[in-house]
Design brief:
alpha+beta; outer membrane lipoprotein receptor (LolB), chain A; eleven-stranded antiparallel β-sheet; 6 helices; 11 strands; 23% helix; globular
């Protein structure tokens, strides 16, 4: 899951640019600096959102489809290869409910043993896991508002629709790899999508939706959580 940390950081690399560019006209006519400044500000005010996408890195493919909220909760699905796992967090407690293919992707030699011990129950995972990159909204949004360096180059390359919303498309680089972001032309100027990579190591995209919409968390009952302590 560390692959997602790289993806989230790449968002910050592109979106957070210091300085201020020129002025008037429509949002799509503004400079890259003005566009990313507006996006950085407006993303910092978000209290909940949906994140979905796919990432390929180191020969492995990951997928995520989650909704996260400001008070530390998230709910959704994580995919690794052909496997998937339900995930949910609340108050710094994290649970996962993987399927057979997910266990196989993690450790084929121990998958059967683990499944037998867990059964059809959830498991708790450390709060220090890489899920913090997505399941903690404050941590996630820091990548938009707290990065200290910007892309080596950036440019506005026109407008496109993302999820039915008009967006200005901007490009940059992260360690030599292309990074592309689509920022809503209408207020608030949310980042609607990002795409990273182009190298053999890491490629993928993330789409952001459901800004500030209510998220219902259903955490597992204690009897539905496997006791792996022995």
């Amino acid at each position: 899951m560390k692959a997602w940390t790289r993806a989230v950081y790449a968002v910050g690399v592109l979106v957070v640019v210091t300085g201020c560019g020129g002025g008037g006209g429509s949002f799509a006519d503004k400079s890259v600096d003005d566009i990313v400044k507006a996006a950085s500000h407006d993303m910092g005010d978000v209290r909940s959102l949906g994140v979905s996408g796919d990432l390929t890195t180191g020969g492995a493919t990951y997928g995520i489809d989650v909704h996260i909220i400001a008070d530390g909760g998230c709910t959704g699905t994580l995919k690794v290869g052909d496997g998937s796992s339900q995930i949910v967090s609340k108050d710094s407690t994290y649970w996962m409910k993987p399927d057979h293919a997910f266990w196989e992707s993690q450790d084929p030699s121990e998958a059967a043993v683990i499944e037998k011990a867990v059964g059809d129950k959830w498991i708790t995972i450390p709060s220090s896991s890489d899920l913090d990159a997505f399941c903690d909204l404050d941590t996630f949004l820091k990548n938009f508002t707290g990065a200290s360096n910007g892309p080596t180059k950036g440019s506005v390359v026109g407008t496109e629709k993302v999820g039915g919303k008009q967006a200005v498309k901007i490009t940059g680089t992260d360690h030599g790899d292309p990074v592309v972001a689509w920022v809503a032309t209408g207020e608030p100027h949310y980042v609607l999508k990002i795409r990273i990579g182009g190298s053999a190591d890491t490629t993928g995209s993330l789409t952001f939706t459901d800004f500030d919409k209510p998220v219902r968390l259903r955490t597992p009952a204690p009897t539905d959580v496997a006791n792996l302590g022995g």
